[in-house]
Amino acid sequence: MKIFKNIILTCIISAAFSCTDGFEEMNKDPNGAEVATPSQLLTNAQYNMATNIADEWNGARFGMYYAQYWSATYYAEESRYQIRESSNQNMWDGFYADVLSQLKQAQRLEQEAKKPGFENRIAISEIIKAYAYHFLSDIYGGPIPYKEALDPGDVTPQYDTGEAVYAGLLNTLEAQVKVLDVSKPGYASGEIIYHGDVALWKKFANSLRLRIALRMADVKTAEATTAIKSALDPANGGIIATQEESALFNWLPATPNNNPINESFKNRVDFSMSKTFIDYLKLYSDPRLPVFALPLINSNNFVGEVYGLENGNGSSNGNRTLVSLPSTYATGAQAPTVWMDLAEVKFIQAEILARGLNVGLKGTAEQYYKEGITASMRFAGVMDGPINDYLKKVPYQPAKWKDCIGSQKWIAMYTQGMQAWLERLRLDFKDPYTGKAIFTAPADGSLDDDVTEVPTRMSYPLTEASLNGAHYRTALDKIGGTNTKSAKNWWDKY
Questions:
Q1: Which of left, alpha, beta for 318 (phi over 0: left; psi -120 to 50: alpha)?
Q2: Kind and range of the H or E element at 87?
Q3: Average pLDDT of 56-81?
Q4: Eight-class DSSP state of 460
Q5: pLDDT tens digit string along 442-473?
Q6: Looking at the keywords, is Lipoprotein present (predicted)?
């Protein structure tokens, strides 16, 4: 954790010029910048958050592999669960130093200045902090530095348990929803997701509460039910209910503010569509297939790369006569990074009803299941006719709700690799109509002795053992004693 304190100084100094065209608060003359403003820090934090979950290292070689959306074309080690420790360290640092610390600094400046609407702006930063901590806790298996993580006077913060982090996040989000006041201003500029719209930040916070609460529903049903009921209470501001209310980080056409995956594809083709994903889309003639993937050259056929091949063992090397590559839906310069969208919220509502939770939600699980598929299809540009045809092929089956909702949610979350992987772990879904497994183990075997099918967490960065040893060892005791990628998250009951 010590390195965070050095990195944040650099981040604050560079905040005024690390982004350009289109991010207004960042588009300042760096030679005249003496101190970063709260808006600049917020922009940088949002930019860093989107990059950390969507770049070629974390987003692709981790998330998109573990969700089996993509396969490797050249360097297959990560798809066989051998991580690059430097990438893991950068992801950890990215959340703490490049997102959380900058948000805390923005909040401090807002508190000192107390300009009109500062309460709203502090609350928005607090909601984004909850979003980042949510990723951190789930990625690393539960225990993370949380309550003491951003204290500059404490370079060896304790790790809070996953249960404690979740309780804290739900309390924080509930509190921020109450703080947000639509009669007062939010951010006038520099806020990329909702452009300072306070009402939409309320809806995002409530929707995030639903995701967090549902994820722990198997082990803390009562607490989850209480949180869900509060989040759904119209008096608290509502949830994401239209596509326009989805939380998207929209990139710009040119470097350095284009989608980071777009930039990685300019140099070489390291990623192809996986056979797992392509075959499942083809199984039910999913009209999103030609939106998500490119056909083979001189062909209308779509072919996925076998997942987890050893380097040089029959891999296509990205040759489009042999394998389908991701389309601009994922790799376009302006392809948005999804923080949370309408389709996910609809599937959450379907699951709430499928579980029979008494939270006052009207409608049926089947209704929201269909609405989730429809929202995903429309976001992908599919017309109503093909949507209706597809819905007939994938009917909702109450007795197999985990399989129905899980498989369709997985498809809808394409590009959101990390969250799709976590949903894969939580729901353990298979194809609801054949009963067959959807996912496969790496074809040429795992390179991690502890993992066969898929990692259930990311290992802590190795520097934690030396920089924060005592608390690091306590955290390991809470997940089984070793820093293995096979330890299950506290909420992963089945």
A1: left
A2: helix 85-95
A3: 96
A4: P
A5: 999 999 999 999 999 999 999 999 999 999 99
A6: yes
Q: List pLDDT tens digits, range 402-417.
A: 999 999 999 999 999 9
Checking if the pLDDT of 183 tops 50, the result is yes
Distances (CA, A) of 226 to 39, 218, 237, 474: 34, 14, 17, 30
CA dist list (Å): 406 to 368, 427, 431, 457: 13, 6, 9, 19
**Helices and strands (H, E) in the chain, number of each type:** 20, 6
- The structure's pTM equals 0.93
Max CA pair span of the chain? 64
What is the set of domains in the chain, with CATH numbers? 2-27+37-246+336-448+457-478 (1.25.40.390)
Query: CB-based contacts of 416: which residues, under 8 Å, 6+ apart?
Result: 63, 338
Nearest of 329, 307, 335, 408 to residue 65 by alpha carbon: 307
Distance CA 422, CA 250 (A): 24
- The rounded Cα 311 to chain-centroid distance in angstroms is 28
Give the pairing of strands 271-273 and 70-72.
antiparallel
pLDDT at 2: 35
Cα 37 to Cα 110: distance, rounded to the nearest angstrom: 9
- Looking up tokens 């789930």, which residue turns up? 138
Locus of tokens 């995030």: 208
Structure tokens at 250: 């929209």
pLDDT at 312: 80
Residue with tokens 């996925």: 304
Angstrom distance (rounded) from CA 226 to CA 223: 5
Q: How far apart are the first and last CA of the chain?
A: 33
Quick check: 458 and 88 in contact, CB under 8 A? yes
Q: How many CB atoms lie within 10 A of CB 400?
A: 18
| Residue pLDDT, tens place only, 11-21 | 333 333 333 34
Indicate the average pLDDT of the chain: 93
pLDDT in tens, 353-363: 999 999 999 99
Contact 140, 458 (CB under 8 A): yes
Q: For residue 337, what are the contacts with CB-CB under 8 A and spacing of at least 6?
A: 50, 53, 54, 248, 249, 251, 259, 415
